[in-house]
Amino acid sequence: MGMTRKTFGTVTDKNLALFTDLYELTMMQGYIETGHNPTATFSLFYRDLPPNRGYVVTAGLEQVVQCLETVSFGDEALAFLTEFDFSEEFLSYLEQFEFSGDVRALPEGTVSFPNEPLLEVTAPILEAQLFETVLINQIGFQSLIATKAARMRDTVNEHGDDQSLVDFGSRRAHGTDAGMKAARAAYIGGFTGTSNVAAGHEFDIPVFGTMAHSWVQSFPTEREAFEAFVDVYGEESVLLVDTYDTINGAQTAMDVAEARGTDISGVRLDSGDLVELSREVAEIVGEAGIFISSGIDEYEIQDFLTNGGIATGFGPGTALVTSDDAPSLDAVYKLVAVERDGELQPSMKLSTGKVTYPGQKSVRRVEDDGQFERDVLALHDEDAPGDEQLVDVIIDGSLVYAPPSLDESRDRTCRQFQKLPQETRRLQNPVEYPVHVSDGLQSQTASVRDELSARYLDAR
Amino acid sequence: MGMTRKTFGTVTDKNLALFTDLYELTMMQGYIETGHNPTATFSLFYRDLPPNRGYVVTAGLEQVVQCLETVSFGDEALAFLTEFDFSEEFLSYLEQFEFSGDVRALPEGTVSFPNEPLLEVTAPILEAQLFETVLINQIGFQSLIATKAARMRDTVNEHGDDQSLVDFGSRRAHGTDAGMKAARAAYIGGFTGTSNVAAGHEFDIPVFGTMAHSWVQSFPTEREAFEAFVDVYGEESVLLVDTYDTINGAQTAMDVAEARGTDISGVRLDSGDLVELSREVAEIVGEAGIFISSGIDEYEIQDFLTNGGIATGFGPGTALVTSDDAPSLDAVYKLVAVERDGELQPSMKLSTGKVTYPGQKSVRRVEDDGQFERDVLALHDEDAPGDEQLVDVIIDGSLVYAPPSLDESRDRTCRQFQKLPQETRRLQNPVEYPVHVSDGLQSQTASVRDELSARYLDAR
Fold first, then answer.
1. Spatial separation of the C-alpha atoms in residues B310 and B303, rounded to whole Å
2. A192 touches chain B (CB under 8 A)
3. CA distance B460 to chain A (A)
4. pLDDT digits over B438-456, tens only?
5. CATH classification (class only), B16-144+327-457
6. Does A30 touch chain B (CB under 8 A)?
7. Which of A223, A377, B341, B440 has the highest Cβ tally under 10 A?
């Protein structure tokens, strides 16, 4: 029985343009048919921090840039769209689609706060509308994971000894793309590397690995399994010692190393009372490393370190790649300004609990004595204190920004954390970092709201 | 400034083979170097149900089959691996890698329970080892989402009127692949369709869409926005009415329809007190549909329906595609049998809290009066009651299974739910469905455990 070869992933060049909600295309055709294509500004931001988060570390901008600069509707995509009753005129428009607008954004590795634009797109509304779905997807997920990773890195740095942190989560990530991007975002958040070989290949991230229980079980005895591994890998060996009994396993590991006349790099513990076991194992393995896996997260790393556990590295998996205590960021992409009579006018909606600050923004950060003191969310052209955090990325469709290397973005996260108040970095119940809304933005918000309220609410 | 064109996705044919943890490759090279390549059976299962789940609906088998049947190490992958100090012999092995083993699995759309194999792979350990990471990834995520979707479908069918359920979650999914696969898995779980155009293209799922707030805001008034949309889409129009004021918006929608002399398909509510608003809106819109979005999940759908909310359809997003109340399934891929002296021998580990039943299994389902009464987890060749649920998928590397269409898998889920006890389907605190461990499996487990305990635990 045969099977057609298909792509995996599963979104590739051939249909990234289609990674959009149908309503984006429906609206785009509507804009064409009604001859209504004003310039518009969309702001990508989140209204609320996820639970127990005092900040969000941004990530995903490089993928957004790739998307905006390269998206195109190929023959296969266009053929599929003919099934939807779209007009010839609209399909011709899509065939020559190119992004011609402007993008400003926070660089990857920037700490951000609610209502601050992570990204602003200004373009003919027909173009800007298409990217809503894919831009939220790209920025939202990577920022979620970079944040989770940064919490772990911050915990290790505060309570530990700068231990290594390696992403072990690919198997539990939400699909293959998530496995890859989680590895990337975790690195930006401060991780040392990943176990995922494809992510190492794609993003040039250091790749690490040890052995699984299956190696040990596949040999008649644990001793023979360790001997075979040490014979191949010598002093690079990291032996998994908990298949049958952790203490017994650690002793066997060292016996084998001694018998073979080699050091080993370390042992891995993957189950049981990790604090107690790590202390017992440390007595046995001496200078060799102790690597801790077993479903750990930042809370457990903190407990482990503050309770005297001994480790040279940690391999968080599921908790990291799913951000399990907060598996989504409520990022949105909202129209905040639209051209009327030849000028961009601020716009907002009044939907209950979902109010948006209107207009193009500026995100200013005020430092005091080398520490972040507060942010100011202001109008784009307003005179306000602090340093502008948004940078120009694309102007008139042309890239004007050199995306930094992953190492540069990772360094940026690290530097930002040195300035972020400790109480905002707490793992639980962090203190809200002050974000002031400027006078200009407050008064613009009030005036747009009043006008809309008068028209729609008082009319009832 | 230029930018290299890259793939999105980001895992494509060129590096799916690399979507693996480094330790799989390290072990594989170790097996080669030590001349140790016994036949082994790996079982993919989960030990515990996610919180508030009484079952897991399986999904993802088709992607697993594609993976096993087509994976290969191309020049680019092999070139990357030379960076890791792998031997010439191992790289030559990878260059000609093909899967030659056997696979048995639960068909997509089957309800499953803890410790039951969703999939069993029997192959030379060198081959079976490679796929650990990608198989857990493919089956785990889609099963998680199919389960979440089935909970929503079951809730709607029990408390409602078989309303439509459309996946609106692509923007909040964990990357692009997750957006695609969530749409697929949700359809298997009983959804009506998706908003994701690429998923419609890739998997032939019905695609739906309405309009966004940006359409409404881009026109000077809501009325003009509705007029423009109705002029283009006529009776197919679904108008979003909560941009400024839901009741006012619903009235405006109907005024516009009347003025234009057309019916409209419906209105969408996306904020506010949905029960109360839907009842008021129903009075206004008459025969037109009411579509509910706004961050809903199965619990809110249940509350909405039992409290008298009126709707013709729901568009869950974030909660669906992230399975937000349970964002991971603890699926594992464990060695359960290994060849010794020419025969497959049962194997297990003793790691604290992570015990695995040894040996190849059979999953039997016993029905009584058309209802599922209990499952029996038995040895593969054991005489046990009930119908075998695992089917042969691949034998000696050849596909012997015609993957069903998505509609067939969706029908299977639906038929299984008609037989699944109501108390096991509860949204909260479901009653545990009985899975009996057969006499043969119990005695085999005890005997392997005793032997290992004597060797490793008593030796301390």
1. 12
2. no
3. 6
4. 999 999 999 999 999 998 9
5. alpha beta
6. yes
7. A377
